[in-house]
Design brief:
about 500 residues; alpha/beta; 5-stranded antiparallel beta sheet; 4-stranded mixed beta sheet; 18 helices; about 40% helix; binds zinc ion
C-alpha cells in the first residue's frame, strides 16, 4: 500500500532553505519526492502541513544495557565506569535486557532517531537469551538497529597498567579470582547471533561483531572476531582509543598505537567502526581513512567522562567516514541526537579557538548524524536522506516550534536551537511508529514502570559488587593517574 506524506517542507539539497514537497512511499521505501506527484487513488495520505519532514537521525553508537541506570553516575572517568561494570550489569534477566533496550529505543524514537548501532553488553558475557530479548525489544518498538553484542575475554582490572601491583593482598586475591568469559564460548555466541538474527524484522535488525575494547581482548579473540565479521560480511565495532589510559596501555602491551595493533590483526577495512577515537594520532587517522574504516563520534560522552575532544576536523580532512552517536546512557546520559549534533559543532570549535575555518559547523554536524552515521551502520544508500530509493524513515517536526521560530536559517536552527521536543510523528520503513508524540508500537507507560522496578531491584541486588567497586576505586585512580602521566604524541583537551 502506498502512502503520500503531503504538504510538508523538506531541506533543499544544499541545506540552505526549506521547500514544500510531497513524499510518495511505496512499501518501505521512498518512491518520489516533489510538488505534484502522481499517485494511485487508493493511496493513504498523511497530512504534513505545518511540519518539517526530516530524514530519521541515525545513532552511530549506543548501549542498550545502560538505559536502566541512566543518570546514576557522575564525575566518573571511563575507567570508573568500567570499574562499576559488574555492579551495573550483573544479575540481569532477559526481561531486564528487554526493558533496558526498549526504553532506550522509545527515547530515540521520541527524539527523531530511527536507526542505531547498539553495542549491548551483559555481565560476564552476552547470552543467546539476552540477545534474543534485545532483538525483541527493537523489533517491538520498531526502530532499525545494528545489534552488536559487546564481548571481551580479559578482565578489565587485569588490563590497567600497574593496577594489580597497587592493590592490597585481599583485593588482589579477589581481582585475580575474577574469570573472564571463555574465548571460544563468546565467539560461538557471536556467530550464533549473526546466523539467527541477521536481516530479521523485515530487514530492520542487523547484527555485527563487537570485541568491546581491544585492551580487554586477547589477540586470539579479536582475530576471531575479525574472521567472523569477514566470513559473515557483517560489521566490526570496537571502542577505539577512547581514553588516554587505553592509548597508553596499548603502548605498554603492544608497543604501538591501538590502530597499529588492529592493523596487524587485519581488522581495518570498510566494515570496521571505531567508537570515539579521541586519542588517535595523525598516522592512525590516515591509516583508518586509507582502509575505508569509520569512526563513531560521541562528543557528549567524551566530555562527561573527561576523555577529551576527538580530532573530528582532522578525520574529515583525511576523508575518514565519521558518524555521530550519543553513546550509552551511563556516559551521556540521554540518547538525543539533536543534542549530540549541537555538542559536535560546539566542541569542534573550541579545539581551534582562532581558526574558525577549521570549526565544525551546522552542516558537518547534520551530515554526521544523517549520512555519516548511515555509512557507519553500513546503510549508506538506504537511510539518512529524504530521497527516492531510500527507506521511508522520516521524522515530522512541528515547524511552529519555539526553538525554530522565528526561522532564519533552517539548518542552523535544527542543529543549534532544536532539542527534539518538537518531534511529532515518526515513520520507520513507511510505518507510523510515533504519532503526535505517542508511541504506537509498545505501551510506554507500562514500559516505564517496569523499567523503574527493574532498576530499583538491580541496585539492591548488586550492592556487593558496588561495594567492591568503591573499594577498588582509589587504587584504580592512582594507577590511571600514573599511566596518563606518560607522554603521548597527541593532546586532546582544548588547545592551549
Ligand atoms: Zn560506547
Amino acid at each position: 500500500m502506498a502512502l503520500l506524506v503531503h504538504g510538508g517542507h523538506v531541506l533543499n539539497p544544499s541545506y540552505t532553505a526549506l521547500e514544500q514537497a510531497d513524499i510518495l512511499i511505496e512499501a518501505d521505501r521512498i518512491r518520489a519526492v516533489g510538488q505534484t506527484l502522481p499517485f494511485a487513488p487508493d493511496t493513504h495520505r498523511l497530512d504534513a502541513t505545518g511540519y518539517l519532514v526530516l530524514p530519521g537521525l541515525v545513532n552511530a553508537h549506543t548501549h542498550a544495557h545502560n538505559n536502566l541506570f541512566k543518570g546514576l553516575g557522575d564525575n566518573w572517568t571511563l575507567e570508573d565506569l568500567l570499574n562499576h561494570g559488574p555492579a551495573l550489569n550483573g544479575n540481569r534477566t532477559p526481561e531486564d535486557h528487554y526493558l533496558s533496550a526498549a526504553i532506550g529505543a522509545v527515547e530515540m524514537l521520541k527524539n527523531g532517531c530511527t536507526a542505531a548501532y547498539d553495542l549491548f553488553m551483559a555481565a560476564p558475557a552476552p547470552t543467546s537469551e539476552g540477545i534474543e530479548a534485545v532483538v525483541r525489544a527493537y523489533t517491538d518498538v520498531g526502530l532499525r538497529v545494528v545489534i552488536a553484542p559487546a564481548m571481551a575475554d580479559l578482565v578489565f582490572y587485569q588490563t590497567v597498567p600497574g593496577l594489580l601491583d597497587l592493590l592490597p593482598s585481599d583485593l588482589r586475591r579477589t581481582v585475580n579470582g575474577l574469570v573472564a568469559a571463555p574465548t571460544a564460548g563468546v565467539l560461538q555466541i557471536a556467530a550464533e547471533a549473526v546466523r539467527r538474527w541477521q536481516g530479521t524484522a523485515s530487514g530492520r535488525i542487523s547484527v555485527a561483531v563487537a570485541p568491546t575494547i581491544p585492551g580487554q581482548c586477547s589477540d586470539a579473540f579479536f582475530s576471531g572476531c575479525v574472521r567472523l565479521a569477514r566470513d559473515y560480511g557483517v560489521g566490526l565495532h570496537t571502542h577505539l582509543a577512547e581514553s588516554k589510559v587505553q592509548a597508553i596501555a596499548s603502548q605498554h602491551r603492544w608497543g604501538k598505537t591501538l590502530v597499529g595493533h588492529l592493523a596487524d590483526l587485519g581488522a581495518l577495512d570498510s566494515r570496521f567502526v571505531g567508537a570515539h577515537g579521541v586519542w588517535l594520532t595523525d598516522d592512525d587517522i590516515r591509516q583508518l581513512a586509507d582502509a575505508g574504516a569509520a569512526v563513531a563520534h560521541n562528543p557528549a560522552s567524551n566530555l562527561k567522562l573527561g576523555c577529551g575532544i576527538a580530532p573530528v576536523r582532522e578525520m574529515v580532512e583525511q576523508g575518514l567516514t565519521v558518524g555521530l552517536g550519543t553513546d550509552g546512557a551511563m556516559s551521556s546520559d540521554n540518547l538525543n541526537l539533536f543534542e549530540a549534533m549541537r555538542f559536535a559543532a560546539l566542541v569542534g570549535k573550541v579545539r581551534f579557538p582562532h581558526e574558525p575555518a577549521r570549526w565544525l559547523g551546522a552542516q558537518t554536524a547534520w551530515d554526521l548524524a544523517t549520512r555519516g552515521s548511515a555509512r557507519v551502520l553500513g546503510m549508506a544508500d538506504a537511510v539518512g536522506a529524504v530521497a527516492p530509493g531510500y527507506k521511508a524513515d522520516l521524522v515530522l517536526l512541528r515547524a511552529d516550534s519555539v526553538f525554530l521560530r522565528p526561522l532564519n536559517h533552517p539548518l542552523n536552527a535544527l542543529v543549534y536551537a532544536e532539542t527534539g521536543a518538537d518531534v511529532d510523528t515518526v515513520l520507520v520503513d513507511g510505518r507510523i511508529v510515533l504519532e503526535h508524540g505517542t508511541v504506537l508500537t509498545v505501551n510506554e507507560t507500562h514500559l516505564r514502570a517496569q523499567a523503574q522496578a527493574a532498576a530499583d531491584r538491580l541496585r539492591t541486588q548488586n550492592q556487593a559488587a558496588w561495594t567492591l567497586a568503591e573499594q577498588l576505586a582509589p587504587y584504580l585512580a592512582t594507577a590511571c593517574r600514573a599511566a596518563v602521566a606518560t607522554p603521548y604524541p597527541v593532546q586532546r583537551y582544548a588547545a592551549p
